[in-house]
């Protein structure tokens, strides 16, 4: 991904409740992509996804083609 500048605050998933829930946090990047990190290990690194890859991921989740 070319530009990894984060332009919003990280937001934890609303489905996660309490301190013991494993979750990810997502923020927007300057080019319309997303930055993703582990909410329990914020210093452990951030993954970056372009807008097209993020859209494909969301489409797969919403379409039931991703998950257990």
Mean pLDDT rating? 85
Oligomer: single chain
Order of helices and strands: EEEEH
- The geometry reads as globular
The fraction of residues in strands falls at: 15-25%
Tally of contiguous helical segments: 1
Parts with pLDDT < 50 across at least 5 consecutive residues:
none
In this structure, how is the largest beta sheet organized? Answer: 4 strands, antiparallel
Intertermini distance: 28 Å
| Number of E-type strands | 4
Estimated helix fraction: 10-25%
Helix/strand structural class:
alpha+beta
What does this entry look like structurally?
With 68 residues, the protein is of the alpha+beta class. It contains one helix and four strands, in the order ββββα. Strands 1-2-3-4 form a four-stranded antiparallel sheet. A hairpin with a 5-residue loop joins strand 2 and strand 3. The model has no long low-confidence stretch (mean pLDDT 85).
Give a brief outline of the structure.
The chain is α+β, with helices and mostly antiparallel strands and 68 residues long. It contains one helix and four strands; from the N terminus they run ββββα.
List the helices and strands and how they pair.
Blueprint: E1 11-12, E2 24-28, E3 34-38, E4 47-49, H1 51-62
What key attributes describe this structure?
alpha+beta, 1 helix, 68 residues, 22% strand, globular, four-stranded antiparallel β-sheet
């Amino acid at each position: 991904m070319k530009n990894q500048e984060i332009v919003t605050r990280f937001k934890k998933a609303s489905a996660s409740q309490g301190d013991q829930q494993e979750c990810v946090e997502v923020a927007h990047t300057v080019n319309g992509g997303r930055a993703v990190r582990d909410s329990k290990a914020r210093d452990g690194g951030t993954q970056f996804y372009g807008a097209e890859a993020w859209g494909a991921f969301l489409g797969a989740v919403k379409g039931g083609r991703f998950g257990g």
